[in-house]
Structure of Class I SAM-dependent rRNA methyltransferase:
Amino acid sequence: MEQEVTVKINDKMAGAYAKGYPLITKEAVESSEALKTEGAIVHLTDKRGRFLAKGYYGKQNKGLGWVLTRDAEEAIDQSFIERILAAAVQRRKTYFDDPETTAFRVFNGEGDGFGGLTIDYFDGFYMISWYSEGIYTFKELVVAALEQVVNAKGIYEKKRFDTKGQYIDDDDFVTGQRGEFPLIVKENGVNFAVYLNDGAMTGIFLDQRDVRNTIKEKYAKGKTVLNTFSYTGAFSVAAALGGAVKTTSVDLAKRSSSKTIEQFSVNGIDYESQDILVMDVFNYFKYAKRKELAFDLVILDPPSFARSKKYTFSTSKDYTDLMKQAIAITEKNGVIVASTNSASFDMKKFKGFIDKAFKDLGKKYSIVEEFTLPSDFRVQKEFKAGDYLKVLFVKLK
Ligand code: SAH
């Protein structure tokens, strides 16, 4: 069924592939002319034609595809996928065995040996995310392999590539039993309502699990909490359960309000005792400053890029400014949870943004907690850029 092509890698990058670098990039290939059919198996060779690695063509914003093996003889078939899935499941044994956490990542793309593909677990259901047309050509094999390796109640999928209307979406259901939504999953004992059948987002970002738990266990008790870019209010729920005096959640999306009410409700928290605002965060900062409001704990978790009616925000350009606005409404000795999922800069640079904000304001701070991706979001050591999450708990002095 599948096509096989050969692509030459330039001298500069050949060594990296020989050592396990997983992403096939435009810069590394001598010519991408052979790369025409999404899903084609690609043999990477050096300029003299010596085999380096084998992968597939699947265009994403990150690159042209992913390396799957450095063994020229290894077939990319269902049994290959079963082997890497089984290994991934084995690595998550402690998650599967923990009754207090029933939502986590089972398979994390190149970190588990197959870039462009992730699989999340939600209380017996599995959700596959496909990041390119190329990986989607492996659908039958991946689904069959997954059914062999795990005992799934049902399987759902998210197509995270431009489908150009090619695929008809019937509520993202793939096979097995249909779920009843919201599905209530647990994370360190906290409930979250999750939808696998309702567009791109499920209601919870699993990569923030450790951050939520840290807020709940160490930073919320007796505190006033402002959660900006709050989405379904997951950080607010964690803070409220951790004993916060009150939480204020701010998000621009109209849906965020009913979604946040739902997350509070499935945890038995009276949402009316919390503030839930549908509002532009940048307007809220102005409002809070005018009213001289100040919070003990401020959570900043903006999208990498956002455009609202009045403001355009890009993490890599505007984080320092965002941080300054947050500092202005944080109590003395308060803590700001500064988070970003932008893969376009590393932790060092992120710390630079924070540092500049304090320097500009002539204020002092210390970093009291630091997070990257949790262990279920496995990262390959040859591809550190896969660890996109950066979270710092910054204490004002
Ligand atoms: N912190 C959340 C995830 C945030 S997702 C969590 O942990 O669950 C980003 C959110 O930012 C989206 O819900 C989006 O609606 C919101 N958003 C984007 N621009 C905004 C703005 N200018 N003001 C308020 N919310 C904004």
Q: What stands out?
A: The mean pLDDT is 96. The pocket of S-adenosyl-L-homocysteine is lined by residues 205, 208, 229-232, 234-235, 250-253, 256, 280-282, 301, 303, 306, 308, 311 (CB under 6 Å). The two ends are 63 Å apart (CA to CA). The longest strand covers residues 330-340.
